[in-house]
Design goal:
Strand content: 15-25%
Strand order of the largest sheet: 3-2-1-4-5
Helix content: 40-55%
Shape: elongated
Largest sheet: 5 strands, parallel
Distance between the termini: 80 Å
Number of domains: 3
CATH topology of the largest domain: Argininosuccinate synthetase, chain A, domain 2
Number of strands: 14
CATH class of the largest domain: Alpha Beta
Radius of gyration: 28 Å
CATH superfamily of the largest domain: Argininosuccinate synthetase, chain A, domain 2
């Protein structure tokens, strides 16, 4: 039996955390290969990126590529997700899920540009991220080998990993007392582990990083105006801003008002439940504004179609099959619907809540003459009688044929046979 050829040049999705700090020297020692580090800047913050190139090279990487993806992340991934209305299990705005495809795409691009024969990620075998990364690899570069150290190495605990680095004199800021596992980008931050692993424990206040507690938020509301063109935000409080600046400011506004916190026990793709708490202050405001705009410009059937489609779109994002024909086809529908999403919405933020309170659009379907409770000349109330008789005709026929058990029960308990026998039943 021929042996599998060892990788010679491996591109690692590198974050600078404990896992990937161990992965680089492990790859070098295990395969004797060259390692290229790919760092994706999706808005995790300057603190996370400070000195990361030097650290990657000190750990054993021959090259480190830092790629600014913040704008592309918002315009190609997060904002389209917001337009679609996709929310996983009714609450999760999928900040981690939506970032994985662009991170993996950038990694593939670096790997191809630098002549790598393999890709490597630091995802564990329990989570969703391994699927998201490897599905992207399969979609964009199926010929490249995939290495997942967590499935094959002997390091099984945080303590072992810290010892591994200590033995090799590799400095690491991580400690054995790490409380929470966090993932941050410009759209959100997630928190898992520690006390949160027990669903009976309420999230302690020290877990939150982007937002104040709603009880500590200002006692007066703050109104935020967002202007949209085809569903994409263009102005904040009347000022034109690029996507990164706009969402950064929205995060500040939402954070100081306690907006965007959720606590969720979700169903992972791999089958187990996990508990996490999430902060998405700016994204929550943005999503609420879009739903407010939809109320004006989308007719009933289009809105309900968008809502049904969003459920499946959320699964695609959460499960990591962004680069698929299904996602492309579904986005084509959302993009068509969004052609009329032009206008301005005011969202009122107050003590953890964000609610659209004003909306206007040149494409509004709201007609005061039809909707008013006052006197009008455009609607004849008598027309509704015929409409209701036709709309309820299937119900009427079912009852007349004696096929509605509720109607039969009511008749039996409250009426004499002569009074309640339907004409159709008499004929039979």
């Amino acid at each position: 039996m021929s042996q599998v050829k060892k990788p010679t040049r491996v591109c690692v999705a590198y974050s600078g955390g404990l896992d990937t700090s161990c992965i680089i020297p492990w790859l070098v020692e295990t395969y004797g290969c060259e390692v290229i580090a790919c760092v994706a800047d999706v808005g995790q913050g300057a603190r996370e990126l400070e000195g990361i190139e030097e650290k990657a090279k000190r750990t054993g990487a021959s090259e480190c590529h830092i790629i600014d993806l913040k704008k592309d992340f918002l315009t190609e991934f997060a904002f389209p997700m917001a337009i679609s209305g996709a929310i996983y299990e009714g609450r999760y705005l999928m900040g981690t899920s939506i970032a994985r495809p662009i991170i993996a795409r950038a990694q593939v691009e670096v790997a191809l540009r630098t002549g790598c024969d393999s890709l490597c990620h630091g995802c564990t075998g329990k989570g969703n991220d391994q699927v998201r990364f490897e599905s992207t690899y399969a979609s964009l570069a199926p010929h490249l080998r995939v290495i997942s150290p967590w499935r094959i190495w002997d390091l099984k605990s945080r303590e072992q990993m810290l010892g591994y680095l200590k033995d090799r004199n590799i400095p690491c800021a991580a400690s054995a007392e790490k409380i929470y596992s966090r993932d941050a980008n410009i759209w959100h931050i997630s928190h898992e582990g520690g006390e949160l692993e027990d669903p009976w424990n309420a999230p302690p206040e020290d877990v939150w990083m982007l937002s104040v507690s709603p009880k500590d938020a200002p006692n007066t509301h703050e109104d935020v105006s967002l202007t949209f063109a085809k569903g994409f935000p263009t102005h904040l409080n009347g000022k034109a801003l690029d996507p990164v600046a706009l969402l950064t400011e929205l995060n500040v506004i939402g954070g100081r008002n306690g907006v965007g916190r959720i606590d969720l026990c979700e169903n992972r793709l791999v089958g187990m439940k996990s508990r996490g708490v999430y902060e998405t202050p700016g994204g929550t405001i943005l999503m609420e504004a879009l739903r407010g705009l939809e109320q004006l410009v989308l007719d009933r059937e289009t809105l309900h179609f968008r809502e049904r489609l969003a459920l499946d779109f959320a699964k695609i994002i959460y499960n990591g099959t962004w680069f698929s024909t299904t996602r492309e086809a579904m986005w084509a529908s959302f993009a068509a619907i969004a052609q009329v999403l032009d206008g301005e919405v005011v969202v009122r933020c107050y003590k953890g809540r964000a609610e659209a309170c004003k909306r206007r659009s040149p494409n509004s379907l709201f007609h005061h003459g039809f909707a008013t409770f006052g006197e009008d000349e455009v609607y004849d109330h008598k027309h509704s009688e015929g409409f209701i008789r036709l709309f309820s005709l299937p119900l009427r026929i079912r009852a007349l044929l004696g096929l509605n058990p509720d109607a039969t029960k009511i008749a039996a308990n409250n009426c004499s046979d002569k009074q309640c026998t339907p004409p159709t039943q008499k004929a039979h």
